[in-house]
Design goal:
- By secondary structure, the protein is mainly α.
- It has one domain.
- It is built from 16 helices and no strands.
C-alpha cells in the first residue's frame, strides 16, 4: 500500500477516535435515544433524495441498519450518557471484532483459524480485565451497555457480510434510513417529548453550540468523510492491509479524552486495552494460503474472483475478524 494511502488510513483512525469526543459533547445537550434518531435522520433524508439504493436484498439492508445503526448506538449512547468515558468507550467497542468472528462461526459456519481463536481468548481476557476494574472502581452498567453496543455492531457486520455489496458507501448511507423512526419512537416513549423540546430550547447556550458542533462532526467527518475514505481504501487494497489501521482508533480516543476532557485511564484499563487490541489484531491476521493447487507466476495479474474478494474486503473470516463494512467506529 503506498505511503499516501497509509496516511489516509491513519487519518480515518484519527477522525473516528475524535468522534467519541464529539458524541460526548452532543450527549451533554440531547437525550441519548433522540440523539441517535437525530444523527441518522440528518444522513437519511438526503440519502433518500439523492443516493440510489445499493443492489442488495432488503433483509440484509434492514438487518445492517438495525444491528450497526440502531442497537450499536442505542447502547453506546446510553452507556456514555450515564457515565462511560469517551476514551474507554472507543476501546471497549473494539470487542465487535471477536463478536463478529463468533457470530460468523455460529450462524454462517465459518471456520475459525488458530490465530483467530487465540485472538478471541486474548481479547476476552482484556475485556475481563477492564470489566473487573470497572466493577470495583466505577459503575459497571455503562461498561456492559457499551459491550452490548459492540455486539450490535457485530450483528450489523454479519448482515453487511451477507449483503455482499460492491457499493459499500451506498450501503452505509442507506443503512442510515433504518434507525431514525424506531429510535424516535423509543425516545418519545422513554425520554418523553418534554426532554426533546427542552434540548432544543437551550441550543443558544455554549453547551448547545458545542453539541451542534459535535453532531456536525459525527455526521460529516466521522460518518461521511471517514466512511468514504475507508470504503475507497477497502476497494483498492486487501482487508488485511487496511483493517489494522482501525486499531489506532482507541489509541486516539483514549489520548484525546485524556488531553481534552481530563479522562485519564487507570493502569488496569490500559492493561486490559493492550490485551483487547492485541487479541483483535491477532484475530485479523490473514491465513497463509495452502501450497496445493496451481501456482501463479509472480507477474501474472490476480484472478477475477480473487480481485473481487479483495475489493469486497477479503475472505469472510478476514472481514469478520476486522469488523469490515462499518463506518464511524462510534
Amino acid at each position: 500500500m503506498p505511503m499516501t494511502h497509509r496516511l489516509l488510513a491513519a487519518s480515518v483512525a484519527i477522525m473516528w477516535g475524535f468522534n467519541f469526543l464529539a458524541i460526548d459533547a452532543s450527549l451533554a445537550q440531547f437525550p441519548p435515544y433522540f440523539l441517535v434518531a437525530f444523527r441518522f435522520a440528518l444522513i437519511a433524508i438526503p440519502t433518500l433524495l439523492l443516493v440510489p439504493r445499493p443492489d442488495v436484498e432488503w433483509r440484509w439492508l434492514i438487518g445492517y441498519g438495525l444491528g450497526f445503526g440502531t442497537l450499536q448506538f442505542l447502547f453506546l449512547y446510553w452507556g456514555m450518557a450515564i457515565g462511560m468515558p469517551a476514551g474507554l468507550a472507543s476501546l471497549v467497542l473494539q470487542t465487535s471484532a471477536p463478536f463478529t468472528v463468533l457470530l460468523g462461526a455460529t450462524l454462517l459456519r465459518e471456520r475459525l483459524s488458530r490465530p483467530q481463536l487465540i485472538g478471541i481468548l486474548v481479547a476476552v481476557a482484556g475485556l475481563a480485565t477492564v470489566g473487573a476494574y470497572r466493577a470495583e472502581a466505577a459503575a459497571i452498567l455503562p461498561f456492559l451497555l457499551t459491550v452490548a453496543g459492540a455486539f450490535g455492531w457485530a450483528i450489523g457486520n454479519i448482515c453487511n457480510r451477507q449483503a455482499r455489496t460492491t457499493q459499500p458507501l451506498r450501503l452505509t448511507l442507506w443503512m442510515s434510513v433504518v434507525p431514525p423512526l424506531p429510535m424516535l419512537a423509543l425516545s418519545l416513549i422513554v425520554e418523553g417529548p418534554d426532554a426533546i423540546m427542552s434540548s432544543f430550547s437551550t441550543l443558544a447556550t455554549p453547551t448547545g453550540a458545542l453539541a451542534l458542533s459535535g453532531l456536525a462532526y459525527t455526521v460529516l467527518i466521522g460518518t461521511i468523510a471517514g466512511s468514504g475514505v475507508w470504503s475507497w481504501l477497502m476497494a483498492r487494497h486487501p482487508a488485511g492491509s487496511v483493517a489494522p489501521f482501525s486499531l489506532l482508533v482507541p489509541v486516539v480516543g483514549i489520548a484525546a479524552a485524556w488531553i481534552m476532557l481530563g479522562q485519564a485511564a487507570a493502569w488496569q484499563e490500559l492493561l486490559g486495552g493492550v490485551l483487547l487490541v492485541s487479541g483483535v489484531l491477532l484475530g485479523s491476521l490473514r491465513r497463509l494460503p495452502r501450497a496445493s493447487g496451481p501456482k501463479r507466476s509472480a507477474g501474472a495479474p490476480p484472478s477475477r474472483a480473487r480481485a473481487m474478494r479483495e475489493a469486497c474486503g477479503g475472505t469472510p473470516t478476514e472481514a469478520a475478524a476486522a469488523g469490515i463494512g462499518s463506518d464511524s467506529r462510534g
